[in-house]
Amino acid sequence: MPTVLVVGASRGLGSELAKQYAARDGTTVVATSRSSQASSDKDIVWISGIDVASKDAGAKLAVGCRPYAPIDIAIITAGYFGTESFDQPDWDAEVKMYTTSAIGPVFLVHHLVRSGAVAAGAKIILVSSESGSITLRHESEGGGNYGHHASKAASNMVGKLLSLDLKEKGVAVGMVHPGFMRTEMTKGVGFDKFYDDGGAVTPAKAAKSLIDFVDKFDMGMTGEYWAPRGSGDIGTAGPVLGKDLANSASPLKLPW
User: Fold this and answer.
1) Do the beta carbons of residue 236 and residue 216 sit within 8 Å?
2) Nearest Cα residue to 7 out of 39, 35, 47, 40
3) Phi, psi (rounded to 5 degrees) for 73
4) No. of H helices and E strands in the chain?
5) Per residue in 245-255, pLDDT tens?
6) What is the pLDDT of residue 181?
7) Angle subtended by helix axes 57-65 and 104-114, to nearest 10
8) How many CB atoms lie within 10 A of CB 68?
């Protein structure tokens, strides 16, 4: 009877992950939200008031998870996207993006592991993005959105380092690009205009692909960066990776 923790489950991908895991027989799902009032879904155990960008989130999460430990799978999917350009960079937005994507997860995992809430042989997944790949950046898409891209690159580095720290404990850590999704977040930054041409999918489809990937993810893949849905929605895949990998629909290991 596995226990799955989904951090950032109030909407989008996190919400779908929690629902789909809860639909599996014998699976206990613990989910977090920032708000004080979480969903009333009876199949999900909610821990409210967890803001990944706050200093005390890790300690609070460890306490909240204690009755449901040990955790077999932890997926940290909380995110924030603030748009920027060279002419209009945004200090506060960048700080929030870095804190949410790269600083907060360190403390969440630290407190969960130190409290004994993480099972031996557990899997920890950081939801990153292809936007965090330096190799995949190409002149065809230009610059800008510094905090978004750089915070995801930092998230990947955090995941790699965590994988080294937790290897002796048998805990596998992976970073994933879940796919280009039709969510409130992407719509809010104007990316809905790219949905059709960019192959955007619903959070439900992205969640299913991620869950299938996590089922097969193990210590042999720890510290790696993957696109469970392949490269079909990565606009720079063709010019950077070549035509043979440009439309892959199978899980693809991404370059840093």
Assistant:
1) no
2) 47
3) -135, 130
4) 10, 8
5) 877 778 999 99
6) 79
7) 40
8) 16
